[in-house]
Structure formats: structure tokens, C-alpha cells
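Objective 1b of the project was to move from sequence-level analysis to a structural picture of ligand recognition. The entry below was assembled by the postdoctoral researcher (A.K.) and checked by the PI before modelling. It contains the amino acid sequence of the target and the SMILES of the bound compound, adenosine-5'-triphosphate.
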Amino acid sequence: MPIIRVALPLPIPQLFDYIAEDAVHSDIGRCVRVPFGRGEKSGLIVSLPAEADVDRGRLKVVSHVQREVPALPADWLELVGFVARYYHAPLGEVVALALPPGLRRADGVSGEDVDPLLELSAAGRAALAEARRESRALTLLKATDALGGPARRSAVRALEAGSAVGDLIRRGWLVPRDDGGGRHLAAGRPELTVEQAAVIDTVVAAGTGFHAWLLHGVTGSGKTEVYLRLAERALAAGEQVLMLVPEIALTPQLENRVAQRFPAANVVSLHSGLAEGARSRGFVQALSGHADIVLGTRLSVFAPLPRLGIILVDEEHDASYKQQEGVRYSARDVAVWRARQRAVPVLLGSATPSLESWQHAGNGRYGLLRLTHRAVATTLPKVRAVDIRRMKLDEGLSPALHAAISERLKRREQSLVFINRRGYAPVLSCPACGWVSRCPHCSANLVVHLADRRLRCHHCGCDGGIPHACPSCGNQDIQPFGRGTQRIEARLNELFPEARVLRVDRDAARTRAQWEALLDKIAAGEADILVGTQMMAKGHDFPKLTLVGVVGADSSLHAADFRAPERLFQQLMQVGGRAGRGSLPGEVLIQTEYPGHLLYQHLGRHDFDAFAKMALDERRVACFPPFTHQAMLRADAPALSDAVEFLQHARRLAQSCAPETLRLFDPVPMRMSRLARRERAQLLVEADSRAGLQGFLGQWMTMLYAQRTPRELRWQLDVDPLDV
Ligand SMILES: Nc1ncnc2c1ncn2[C@@H]1O[C@H](COP(=O)(O)OP(=O)(O)OP(=O)(O)O)[C@@H](O)[C@H]1O
Ligand SMILES: [Zn+2]
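Corresponding predicted holo structure:
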């Protein structure tokens, strides 16, 4: 009787064998439910071994094999296999991460196309011909006709009077048609700029096959247009396109643009914010080859794509491509691996590339493509450092920023005050006894949220009411200390009573719907002054926004993390890049006590190259990535000593198998050592070559997995960690 080998979502690098009477070779890559312990687990068949690892008599029988959807193909199994190997994670956990939960549970999953391709029927044409009275239905019918070919329901819905789409279908004016043939159509595309055309020519001239490209395009240079044109070419060749964006928050606008551009293409979006059914459906659409474009956040790098033609990674520098828990993969790096595996081009785009990618472009591993001018605006915004050393600030706002905002209000333009800290104030404190609001579970302060009168921990999420008096000495006069978005918002409301102030942070946009509503409001010009966190820094294009004021940036200037300057530069260049993207010129004011700091100077000249050179030189001297390769072993436990002790033990094990070139550091408590009642420590290992590091990690992990650890202790490995 056939044996199947199954990857199960368990924190151990082991596969499990079962008996499956009717299993055949083509079942490899199918989801299964199997008995496990006293219950059931679901996993994936990875092979049909001739012999079991254990005594045949002890094997249990599989409960259910999911055969309604196609099996995951061999290249997909290779992909998850690579991720498991490279990040030293159990294969079953990688599979669990990569597959939508519904599919993995081997539930009945519908691969039904919920976004049918529609076209005008004879009746629809007749209705157009008879000049009827204007109605919403007729307006929509005209707009649909103007697309020049079949269109998806979602694309019709996005047109003017789109809500009448159901009506048109009921009247029989729009009818479903067979898929295929229509997807080449690209509607309403602008003339390319000279630079955009050159970039596309270069990519096209390199031909099909694997090529990794870094597209460095200044903010507003029209990188999206480059992605869309490359997507168009792939679609025309009958291929699928994978397009990654860093955050769910950025998907709605891009989804709209993609749907408008390719009205007939089946665009599937995949991100963790989707309902389970929708995520499974999208995944099956991709797997079966019905999806033309898969657009999504990091997890969509695992979408199976039989006809894959190109991979596009937007804002490639963004830290959210790296998963920060469980299997700590970098979707950007996996995307490049996948492009090589599938022999297709991959394009990484950013106005502020990561230094890793920049280094690859510098040494020729990636081809460098550049857009040095904005597409619409004639100039980049003017960036000025406002020296606040001898200035009296009004709740953190300088007179210069105040004046600049007034100016914008007069001209009916929009301003953005950027402060990367949500809440009202980062801490509540008592001036009499020095008490501060500490989180009882973390080594962090509780943040004052005045909007709903709570003290909240931004790390573990715990919250409580704001005390009326100091809990320690009873003093009634306790003060919020420092500033966050809510405080700036409140002050701006007082300073500019006639202006409409809108706060854009994670508290104001908890759900995708709230976020979309905020964006619509801004786009419609229903806000004059925006107060935003890094949510506002990315990708947005609001032509009326002409001023960006940056408050409190200096705090990142001296942070301990060696990546802090890179992040600060990226963030400021990105947020500054929101200014003056249309026909109106933009201005960026950075309030700082270090106006002469090189980072601000490079920023003022929009000189990414100079900044990158400086930062890379520093890293070379200090032997930091990308000039060295790192992995971090982290452990956490209720007591710090347990975590450190485990790491010391791990270090001794490492010494027994470490090559000479490997550098093993001492275990240390993490910078924020306590999180949600657990104490955390870390152990850094470094090697000059990736291969050297990987070889060592393989041996080390085998030893570590064989260790018995106290039940309360958890550990995990982070390869290429972002936070060191
Ligand atoms: N060829 C073109 N002709 C006319 N308008 C264009 C063209 N290319 C891009 N645009 C417009 O220029 C603006 C900026 O483009 P886009 O948002 O793609 O820039 P970006 O390079 O992604 O910038 P950022 O990195 O700041 O997000 C958009 O409004 C876009 O519609
Ligand atoms: Zn906490």
C-alpha cells in the first residue's frame, strides 16, 4: 500500500509518513488531513517514498486527500523547500505560511471566478444605438463600451456610475464571455516619458530569461507606469505577472490602477487582510492559471503561477517584506530566487533602494535602471533643514513650518506634518516624584492616547485608563511628555481653526475600509492639513499636496541600530517625495537641531548616490552587512537568565562546529528586553560568505533541534535579520 510523506505545521524539522490506499504519484503537492496525536492535522504531501521511516505497522491511515483543486506543482514544492533550507525553518511551517488556511485544511475550496469577464450583448448595443433618456445604466454602458473590449466585472464597477453594473447584467446588456483573448487590452495609457521608454527598452532588449533589475527612480518618476508596461508585455505574451507591494494599505490604489489599465485581465489580490474564502479562491485562481495578475503583500510571493512571466517588487527597500515572526523570510529575496528558478526577469523598484540591493547593482549582479526626473512635475521638492536650536517651538512646530502651512492654506493646497509616532504623547509622567507610565509587561512606556483617554502599550497592546493623579505620590498634576500625532493634530486645530485637519495613522485607519475612506477624503481635497506617520510616507500620489513638514526626525539620528540612518534617509526621502508631484511645486521642511548633518545635506540635494556611498563606506569599515552575512539566534523565557543560559549553551555547541571564519558574539539581552512578560536575549553570528554561514547554520540547527529545552523557553533563528 502506498505511503505518503507529509509536511505538517509543527516546530520540528521532521516529515511524517502515512498510509494512503489510493495515493498515486500525482498526489504529490496535494493537501491532506491526517490523524495526529489525539486529533487531526492538515499538511501537504511532499513525496511518495518507497519505504517508510518507521515500522510500516505503526503507520496510520490518511483521513482525507484534497483532490478538488490541482496539486501544487513541483516548482512550488522546490520554492517552499528552498525557503525552509535557507531560513532553517521546518518545511511544514513554511507550507503552512505559504498556503491559505482553508486550502491547507483540505476543505472544499471553490476556484470559482467571482470576477467574470463581461462584454456588451446585442441588446446592449441596441440600447446604445437607441438614444434613450440619460440614466445611470446608460452612462455606465457607454463607459464600458469606451473600454473597447471585454472587461471584468470589477473593472466595470470602477467606472463612472459603476454601481449600476448589476443592473446592466440583469437587463442582459452585459453578458459573460469566455475567458482568454481579451486580456491584451490596455486602456488609457499615457505616453511614456523618454526615461521610462529607455528603461523598458533595456529590459525588453535583455530578452526573456532570468535578469534581476534594480529600478532606481526618484519619487514621482513614474515607476508604476514602468511596472504596468512590463506587465502589459507579459500579458500579451500570455504570461502571468506577480506584483508585490509592501503593505496592504498600498494595495487599493494600485489595484484600481491595474484594473483600470487591464479591464479584461483577471487581477487577483492576495494579502493577509482577506477573508479566508477569498484568499483560498485567489490562490486557486493563480494555481490553475486563471489569474493573470497576482497583486499582493509579501505572502503572495508564494502564489503558484504556472505561466509566470515577470516579477515586479515595488518599494523593494521596505522592511515589511521581511516577516518578523515565525518563518522570517524576506519576500524580496525570495522573489529574486524565484525569478531565477523560473527563468524570468525580476524588477525591484524604489526611490531609496536598500543598501543590499544598491550594492548588488554596484557590483553588477543586478542591472541598474534609472529614472532621474519626475514624470509630471518638472522638479523635485525643495528640501530645507529648519535649524530649531535657538527657536521657540509651539508644541513642536517651528515658526517657519507655521508660516509655510498658512501659505498653503491661502493657496488652497495641502500640507502634511510628518511625525512618526502615534498617540498623543509617548509617556505620562509625574514632575513631582518622577513616576512614568511603564508597561507592566514590557520594557516600554505606555503611550498616552487622549482621543479615547487610554494609556496603551504599542508593543503588547495592553491598555488602561488615564489616572487622574500620580499612582505613586498622588500628585494631581501629571503631564503627558513628548509628542505624537494626536497632540500635533490638536494644536493644529487650535492654530488653524478654519482648516480641516486630518490625522492619518494606524489608530485612524484600523481597517482597510477606514484607510480607503481617509485616502478618498485626501484625494477629494476634503482635508487641508494632514498629520501622518510613516503610513503617509509610502507611494501616495496627491497632486494638491505641496508641503511636507518633518517633526522629530533627529531622534533616529543617533539610534543604536546600524540600519537607523538608512531607514531615516529612506523615510524622509519617501515622505518628502509626496510633495509637489503634480503641476504645483513642492517644499519639504525638516526641523532639526543638526542642520549640518551629512544625512540631511544629502537629502537636501536629493543625492541618494552620495548617501548610499557614505553609508556603504561606513558599513565596509565596520564590517556590517552587506559586507558580512548575519544570523541571529533569539531566545525568550519568563526569566532573562534562562534565555541567556540557553544562548550560552547554543554558543558552546556552535563552537564545536564553527569554521574559523565564523564570528560568534556573546549572548546579550535584546534592546527591548522584555515584551509581553517575556525576557528576550539574542546571539549574533557572522560570516564573510553566505555559503560559509549557511553551511554552519545547517549543522548548528541540527544540534539545536536535538536539544531538550525547558518548556517555557522558546527560540528562533533569524537569517539576514533586519534588527540587530
Ligand atoms: N508617462 C507618463 N505620463 C504622464 N503621467 C505619468 C507618466 N508616468 C507617470 N505619470 C504620473 O506621474 C505620477 C507619479 O507616478 P508614480 O506614482 O508611478 O511615481 P513613483 O515613481 O511610483 O513614485 P514614488 O516612488 O514616489 O511612489 C502619477 O500621477 C502618474 O500617474
Ligand atoms: Zn506592553
